[in-house]
Amino acid sequence: MFAVFRFWGIIYGLYSNYYIVETDLKEEEYIRRNETFQEGEEDEAANVIDESVLAADVNIAHKILEEDEIAMRLRQLGHEQQLGGEDSKFPRPLPPLPPNLYEKPKKVPPEPSGVGVNTKVFYATNDLTGSWEQLPDLSPEIVQAARKIYKSFTGYFDQELITYPEFPGKEREYLRAQIGRISAGTQISPLGYYTFGAEMGGEGDEEEEPAADEEAEGPKTSYRINPKYDPVPLKDLIDGSMSFWVHHTQYILPQGRTSWWSPVAEPEHPDEAEDEAPAEEEEDEKPKTVAPEPETGPPLLTPLSEDAQIESVPAWSVRSSSKIMEEFAVAIVRSHLWPGAYCFATQGKLFQNIYLGYGLKYQVTNFSPSPLPPIQQDYPPGPEIMEMFDPTGPEEEDWRIAHLPKPKPVAPEEEEEEEEEEDEEDDEED
Question: Has keyword Cytoplasm (predicted)?
């Protein structure tokens, strides 16, 4: 069932340490594990209750309870009126509850066994003479949660993690997540040891021919050992530019997978969808869902010289094991992003990666947990719901006087007539 075991490294814990090995399974075992996983997903989907159906059931139960209560009151009073009649003295049942229109975001599916972050199978133990425990496969939810917390290991597989945000698992799942993150960031090899070519090694013209297919199908996810690999000299391996070392493990996207999964459903047969296109009027009526931009990461076999620095500190450092006997010296590469990750390479075709650390990523500043989300507001703020002080008596009187109806203005013609009448009266008196 297993191929070859490789010692991955040690993660130190508070009470005991984790000794970790990795291996590859045979294709038959991967197929069996994926079939079992698909069956489990189908059972889980079958047990999920539709929210709309649940709301309808709640409305029906609510209506039945109201009708039973009205019937009981009618029996007690001795009335023979029918429920819901026009002459009924009791109020009609309340209207049904409004349907819940909230739609939960789609859950990102995990990658199957043997693919992406689950390419390798890991085993861990606290005692080299004891039994080994197989660690579970990674899911995007676990990876995203592990990136938001910063917690040391205790050495107990079943230890619960009390963190914020909440971690959906125990220390066993957290250990597997950190192993996957460390492997994706620190698994390196000398330049030219691996190649994408099917037959020829190196960087010849034959590897550049399928460039169009690569753009159509996406970045390459598989490689092989270059049979014509020419060992890199020691002076190049210990070059500070790190141009002769490359990453040979797939980058984990922020989504928690190595390959992008689009939450927007795509048609299974795009050719048929184009042939049976709806009319223009229907297209205008239906709003078009905008698909999110796919996440991308650095491709495989990317040189370490392209890695970002950490506050003016290079992500990698390299040195020689001996300056006296250079013909027997070994190049040693150290990661500053994941302290404890090392890679050594001889002047031949031998190299190896190993991790000896606490399983924590380097932090430039002290770790600060994510803040709590803001409290949701039930109603928008406004004068209708805001608390105000009651006005006093004088204030109410001032308000009443200010809002009294104003007298109508006198027309100018009437004023002139009054003035003329007054003049005539004056003349008569004279």
Answer: yes
